[in-house]
Amino acid sequence: MTGLRLKKLMPVLHFIRHLGKRVYRDDITVLAGHLAYVSLLSLVPLVTVIFALFAAFPVFSDVSIELRHFIFTNFMPATGDVIQRYLEQFILNSSRMTAVGTCGLIVTALLLIYLVDTVLNSIWRSKNKRPIIFSFAVYWMVLTLGPLLAGASMVLSSYLFSLTWLNVSGVMTLLLRVFPLLLSCASFWLLYSLVPTVRVPARDALVGALVAGALFELGKKAFGLYVTLFPSYQLIYGVLAVIPILFLWVYWSWCIVLLGAEITASLSEHRQVAAHHAAQIARNSDDSVNTTGHAGQRHH
pTM for the full model? Predict the structure, then answer.
């Protein structure tokens, strides 16, 4: 029985070993550091562009407030209120910029999307290059349609939560708790499915998205607990503590994103390696049978 269980576990152990080698070879902690640095540079421009889009559509005026609160509550734990106040001040200042400065903000925001595209395709070992115009169109679509789709989802969720007939046996409470996890998993699934320039099986993207989404939700709680129980940054940096805390959270978030990408890419590779290994064993078995048959014929 033990041998049978071990035999069933062998593919899982081989996959974990393959994943570990891949993560070490790609050095995702360094890549996460690069992405975290560019994210901090692009944070204000990105948020400015997003909420400027909401301002352009009056239907989203009320939703933008809810979405802003949802983002800072669920994606920036522990210090979300402080960061939100700073960002709102930065956005107010940036609204007085000239056309050249506004173009600079948009370019900086697009830089982050370009870097994410480059890093993820390097994880998938993809050499395929999109045409520059097509890439720019995709980046611009992500930058413009992404916030609007998020706002539409908030409108839909607010409408569903307002339906009293759905609030049976705490269903609404459960949905409110699960909604951030579902949103995270859906975002990761879209990221792993659409960004790579190679075909990614939907099942593999779903596995990576579920792992990344679960780690992201656990990471929010663990990070908030750490900041609360070990306030060393507040003691050392005082009011500036929000800067290293924000950097740590962004860095940890990118580590999770890249780990999910590595899992997704490794699943296809592992299946190919396993199929090649099985075919090699079958060929060796056939060669052994043929050799035995020829030896028997010579003996007779």
Answer: 0.78
